[in-house]
Every structure is written in C-alpha cells, then in structure tokens.
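Researcher: We're teaching a course module on how sequence relates to structure. For the next exercise, students receive a sequence and then see the predicted structure as tokens, so they can try to spot secondary structure elements on their own. Here is the exercise chain.
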Amino acid sequence: MRTAVDTALSEFFDSRANHVESIDPKFTEAVGALRDFTMTGGKRLRPMFAWLGYLGAVDSDTSTESESAVVAAFSALELIQSCALIHDDIIDASETRRGFPTVHRRFAAAHAEHGWAGSSDEYGESVAILVGDIALAWADDMLMTAGLSPDAFGRAIGPWSAMRTEVLGGQLLDIALEAAASEKTTDTERVYRFKTAAYTVERPLHLGAAVADASEDIVRAYRTFGHDVGIAFQLRDDHLDIFGDPAATGKGSGDDLREGKRTVLFGTALKLCDEHDPAAAAKLRAGIGTVRAQADVDELREIIHHSGAADIVERRITELTESGVAALASAPINPDIRAQLADLAEQATGHRTK
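Model: And here is the predicted structure for the students to work with:
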C-alpha cells in the first residue's frame, strides 16, 4: 500500500508540473519543496487506515469502484498531512522534520544564501505558508480527480469536509490553550481529539467506509476505534518527544518543552508534582516554553520521569488501544481486515494488545 500511495502521489505531482512551470521558476521551486516533503518519510498511516476501512466494509461482489481510483483518493490524505505539518512547524518554530530542515527553514536558508533583501526568517515563513496552502488545495484536487464514481465521491465529501474542519479547529485550540497556559489535561485531550485522532485515524476510516457504502454499524465501530487509537497515538508521540531517540523520531529531543506544549504527559507530571514535590512543580511551570539549553531540557525530563507521569500515560495508552480494538469485535467487517486494523493500532501506539 505504501508503494501504491507513493506512486499515486508522484503521478499527481507529475500531472501538475506543466501548469506549475508555466507560472514561474520560483513557484516550481516551492512545489518542488512540497513534493520533497510529501514524498520523503512519513508512515502513510492515514491512507492505510482509509484503505483498510474500505476493504473491511466493501462488498467485492457488487462494487464497481476502480482500485487505482480508491487508492488515489485515499492518497490525497497525505497532502492534508503535509499542509498540517508544514504550518505546524511554522507555528512551533521547529528546525527539523523527519530528519531534514523544515520547509520554512529551507527557504530561509535559500534567502540568506542569495543575499536577498529583507528578513530571511520572514521570507522562509511566508513561502512555507503558501506551500502548505498549495498542499491543502491540491488535496481537494487529488480527491476530485481520483476517478471515484459519482456516488462514491458524493459519500466521501461528508467525512472529508468534517476532517478538514476538525484538524484546523484542533490546531487553533492548541494555540489558544498554549497561550492561556491551560493545565487541564481534559483540554489537551480535546486538542488530541480534533488535531490528531480525527484526521489520523477516525476520519480516514470513515472515509474508507463511505467510499465502500458501509452500514452505520461499521461507521460507528470505525469511529470509536479511530477516536481511541488516535488519542493513544498522540500520547505515544508525546512520550517519544520527551524520551525518544531523535535519530528515530526525526525531531529534536524535548521540542515540546521548548515550544511550551502542555501535553497530557506534562500536565500529568505537573499534577503529581503539585501533590508530592512543589519545588519540582515550580521548575516545570517556569521551564515550559522557556528552556533552550539541552541541560535545562534534561532537567525537566528527569522531573517528568521521576514524577511517575510516564507510567500513568502508558496505562492510558494501553486502555485506549485495547478499547479501540475491542470496538471492532462485533462490527460486521472482514475478519482479516479486523486483524490488520488491530496490528496497525499496535504499530501506531506502540502497545501490543495480544
């Protein structure tokens, strides 16, 4: 499936090349950055969840959908992902993504190299905003031109539209909660629900079900699975940001602490320290969003580790992964696909359910 997604994306970019080149070489360079970003790295989780959602529900004896059209439609999810990540990196002032410079840093460096007028950082951010906008617009184009039947396309619009709205709402809520310095983990989980779970697992599965013309029983099971596994996926990502190996994650260690991200892991540690170690709690509050030196990041990491928060979050990941997988048990979906979804949930969350 990953190879099929990469092929569909490559063919889509190729189909836009002549029009792009007719506009200006600078636009060609920007689209080249988008192509590099989209085609390099990434787990292709979203198209995979959509594909499995489709296979689990489709009646292969009566369906007339072209497999290549379905794959192309689901591959458009990767352009939504590119938009979200490129804009997120600007908001967070991130330096790297997937082991490479972020798009805004790439163009800031090009500006500085050419000795152009104005601020290199502002130029890089401006270009990256537009590159993300191209990705969002082209995601719609790719879905519309994938070749789905009119009926399937009509059914796909509902979950597709909801997903785009939810991910933008989740991003806005994330910024607002960070600005307000909210310490409520319930607020943070709402961000996870819309910024991550909805467009990573829940809506891709819903999209697959819609294209397959699935029953409401299947849609409900998919959405429950997607909600729980999607939040567990984000909780795992938070853990990896603090405790993971940058060589494996492709991001700097402790970036969430530097950027002021009040994750569930951080909020849980803060609550525990308030109860048992007020001095450590004070260091967490003072350090979040202000630490820069690696030694200071390491100090906050140690406080989080010793608080016991990681164990609590690990249990939450376990509960959510297992409840999500359990939601599929009674759904009338292909048993082989049910097993593959459980395996994919384990890969996404790092928890073995067996």
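Model: If you want an answer key for the exercise: Residues 29 and 203 are 32 Å apart (CA to CA). The mean pLDDT is 95.
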